[in-house]
Amino acid sequence: MINTKQFFIVLIIALVDIVIYIFLGLVLLGYEDFYDESKGEYWSLASMTLDQKAAYICWHIWFAINILLILFIIIRFVKQIKDRYFVKN
Question: Rounded to an integer, what distance in angstroms lies between the CA atom of residue 59 and that of residue 45?
């Protein structure tokens, strides 16, 4: 069972995660608004400024971190269920 302290820690982590996604999304919206065809293909790094490139790369890294974290949580949950409900030989 999760206690109150653990609940608030998970809640804060989730809120920080959402804030980071919002920040990166807003930076990338600047790219959407001011995209110039003469600078290169749409969503290519060549058509982005340095800030937009950093946000684009960080967004992909943050996405990968979130996927790994979700996989980790699923694996721990499955192990807890397995340990709780199945008899060990």
Answer: 13
